[in-house]
Amino acid sequence: MKFNASAKAFANVALVKYFGKRDRVLNLPDASSLSLTLEPLQTVTKIVFDESYKSDKVLFNGDVVEGSAATRISSFLDIARNLKGITLKANVDTTNSFPTAAGLASSASGFAALARAVDYALDLKLDDTALSAYARRGSGSASRSVFGGFVKWQRGEKDDGSDSHGICIKKPSWWDLRMIVGVADSGQKSMGSTGAMNLTKETSPYYKSWIKSAQSHVNEAVEAIEKKDFQKLGEITENSALLMHGAIMGSNPGIMFLKGTTIDAYHLTVEMRKKGLGAYFTCDAGPQPKILCTVEDAVKIERELSMLKGIKKVINCKIGDGAQVIKPYGTSIEDKCSTLQ
Ligand code: DP6
Questions:
Q1: Which residues have C-beta atoms less than 6 Å from ligand 1?
Q2: pLDDT in tens, 94-106
Q3: Which of 36, 134, 141 to mutate to test ligand 1, by most ligand atoms within 8 A of the CB atom?
Q4: How confident is the model at residue 332 (pLDDT cuts 50, 70, 90)?
């Protein structure tokens, strides 16, 4: 028996950040969050389940993945295998088009693409909501990359996490916003987001107020998107990032993701705003500065950021679609049905 599929997904950058879990096993957040799915930050993943395989094997950008990263993927596959009632091992071959694990949301596109590929290969027939909840088990932010456009990941109330998934608020065509991503350091970050958010929750005196702000920011951001109120959305975006980093820095021992170049990019953003450009800063669990802007100002802002000392590369991102199966490499449903019989 052999089932295979390929899928692609874009990364996302949160305007209202997710940073803290109410359940670490199920990846359930303490607050809702909201993001833009971003093209061209893309992961492409191919999966093959085959009875001849003795164990799961994962390739990332051509290199074999081992240790805890490999275990994380096997555990994720186990969820689907249990659902399907099979024990077949898999080969996973995944490629990223952008710097990984440096605050560029690679786990989001990675697990969204993998979830989509697994669903197709095993013919699980999960709808997008269920697929998003499945992707969430791999990485919380992946629940948002299943969808394109403006995406809310709702916190949910249930203990089993079935109501904690992404929701597409608006499709990409709703509003042509841009995210200018600066690559300040494409190396691995000192601490992963999972460890950092757990330590922040356990030790930062600012954690509770951070979570409270996120919950109300999400509601305000949805309203700003519906009204296309760019200034309001931008102010929420910048405030959410700074509040998150404030809470992170307040951890014990302290965590500092921002580097000198990141801070310089923040000041540059404020300066550009004073000159009349619509630019708002954000940054995730890494040093990469990101600037939310309108399409009209995007080229100017891209040029300004690329001239900043310490910036190695700038990626002008537009709002992209959700995770999709790549047809030519996937087994068709008909093929799979005949294999299953
Ligand atoms: C700072 O989704 O990578 O980018 O659920 O533990 O895998 P896990 O964390 P992850 O965290 C992302 C944190 C963030 C903010 C965000 O994307 O909302």
A1: 14, 17-19, 27, 33, 105, 107, 139-141, 193-194, 284-285
A2: 999 876 645 565 7
A3: 141
A4: very low
For ligand 1, atom 4, the nearest C-alpha belongs to 284
Quick: pLDDT tens for 168-189: 999 999 999 999 999 997 666 6
Structural domains present in the chain = 2-174+322-340 (3.30.230.10), 177-319 (3.30.70.890)
Separation of CA 308 and ligand 1 centre (Å): 27
Q: Please state the three-class secondary structure of the chain as a single string.
A: CEEEEEEEEEEEEEEECCCCEEECCCCEECCCEEEEEEEEEEEEEEEEEECCCCCCEEEECCEECCHHHHHHHHHHHHHHHHHHCCCCEEEEEEEECCCCCCCCCHHHHHHHHHHHHHHHHCCCCCCHHHHHHHHHHHCCCHHHHCCCCEEEECCCCCCCCCCCCEEEEECHHHCCEEEEEEECCCCCCCCCHHHHHHHHHHHCCCHHHHHHHHHHHHHHHHHHHHHCCHHHHHHHHHHHHHHHHHHHHCCCCCCCCCCHHHHHHHHHHHHHHHCCCCEEEEECCCCCEEEEEECCCHHHHHHHHHCCCCCCEEEEEEECCCCEECHHHCCCHHHHHHHHC
Q: What is the pTM of this model?
A: 0.94
